[in-house]
Amino acid sequence: MEAGETGTRTYLGVPLYRPRVAFFEFSSCEGCQLQILNNESTLLDFLSLVEVVNFREAMTARSDDYEIAFVEGSITRDDEVKRLKKIRKKAKVLVALGSCACFGGVNQLKNRFKDLNRVNKEVYGKRPIESGPVRTLEDIVKVDLKIYGCPVKKEEVEKIVLHIAIGKSIVLPKYPVCMECKRNENICLFELGEPCLGPVTRAGCDSWCPNSRAGCWGCRGPADEPNMEQMKKIMEEYGFSEETILDRLECFGGFSSLMGKGNTK
Amino acid sequence: MIFRTFEKQELKKLFDILAAHNRIIGPVETGRDRKGQPVYAFADVPEYNDIRLDYSITKLPAKRFFLPFKEDLSTFKIENGDWRKEISYNVERPLIFFGLHPCDINALNKLDKVLLHSVYPMPYYAAKRKNMFIVGMDCVPQPYCFCRSMGSDTALHGFDMFITDLGSRYFVEILTDTAYNFLKNIKTGEPEEVDHIQYMKVVAKRNNEFTTQVDTTDLTKILDMEFQAEVWKYWGDKCLACGTCSNVCPTCYCYGVDETVDIDLKGARKTKMLHSCNLIDFAAVAGGHNFRPERHSRLKYRYYHKHRGFVEAFEESLCVGCGRCGESCLANITVPEVIDSVRGNWRNK
After folding, report:
1. B39 close contact with A: CB closer than 8 A
2. B105 lies in which domain range?
3. Residues B127 and B22 in one domain
4. Is the ipTM of this complex over 0.90?
5. Structural class in CATH, domain A6-166
6. How many C-beta atoms lie closer than 10 Å to residue B342's C-beta?
7. Do A227 and B83 touch (CB under 8 A)?
8. What is the mean pLDDT of each run of 10 residues along chain A (265 residues)?
9. CB contact, 8 Å: B194 with chain A?
10. Which residue in chain B has the smallest CA separation from A226?
């Protein structure tokens, strides 16, 4: 079956268009791409829905003829800006894959330091590299779709790709992680004496961390209209310092636009 | 109604007889909270020693066994250009609930009114409800319980047998022939006058232990009058819109339906997911309009459904007063306080 053409796969008798997709990475650990490859049991089905033409982590072949670009990572250098713009020009649809691409991810933590040269020296010592402030993909180009998470939840990526293939709308949960956490019958982390950002973080991860009794760090960013003011009150009430709260809220960059603000709705 | 008494050691025998061929769901301890207090949940009980009949309350109700958080309503097999629909009510075998408190039994009775005895019964619920056997058990009132205000502190029906601890022995109410037949397998006796006196003593003692009250007098009318009250905004500002109250509620049954296609394109399914009226998209409709975009209005309608709409339809509230929602709410929004504030008792504060 040729990529980019209507393939042999059908759904309800209707032949499905098989888009050409490419995976790219910028400043990141490339763990989100690895998540996709991690899905052995459904990998072949996944690959039959799309034609992967560029995926450095998975194959040697390279093609610049693609329609959908999944882009992982944040942008920290000028050459990355150029490369990203090139990808944007070629791709009909650009998908930000994972928290680094969407919010800057863990990388953006360095933005809080005033002197980035000192940061560079601290990390790279005598072999400094060019690395400026961390920016999200959206800071540089137009992003059509964001897939949150550090790493992304493979089931969610599969669902999104499937919906692209069969033409079904893509809907991410608007509510916070607590909803999924209760469904999974976890004991509330606050009750166990742990801080957790579940009440304000966007669901969709199936409360991945709380399922293992680890409090949420907000990697998927805020739910729709999170109650930040109340979240802070709860953290205080349960005896967590402001530093603990900020550590979590700042960790992945998803809450940066809400820092210091309460939501009044 | 038939009453019996039996010695305490007979309870294990009863459990073992029931467990021999059935799946038993009962209260078990799943951990300790930060204060060292046990945390309880309804779960499969493989051994009598695992059951914690002295449990205070479970964090989550037994709801997931008859109203699962997530349940396939139908699955579709797609083959050779054609498709076939399959429906399962997802009942494997009967379930025995051992040790349900009156509030949770009353919750089932309330759900029955909507999901079993209404114009359009829900077969998925009915199939499970018809295949359960309930051993009720008296509780020790907790500081957050207000079931007595909601008329749910005792269960008059909705169970097969109900056990009360008389101190030295158990007193059991038998409502069904199934329960009667099971009890034939253990040593029971006719209650004597001393048992009746002891029963009434125990009940009277328990009645005095309820500390939290909710004034429900004229509540439907008051809720109508106070529709625009400022207090709703106060609670709305606190609300996290996280849906926890609905998930821990034994009577919340609202749901959404999700249609998904399997990644191999050979199957599809319609999945029912319990939702919450406090979630931001609860009242969002096709076209994008959201009828309740504000937290306080969503919270308000939760109370209107529980304490007004349901009362008008069924002459009773859709709240059993178990207090789970208030206990689980990280923002400390509790039913007694919300209702108290709506009744205007906060105006002078």
Report:
1. yes
2. 2-61+91-207
3. yes
4. yes
5. alpha beta
6. 22
7. no
8. 59 88 96 92 92 94 95 97 98 98 96 91 91 96 97 94 92 96 96 97 97 97 96 96 93 87 39
9. no
10. B240
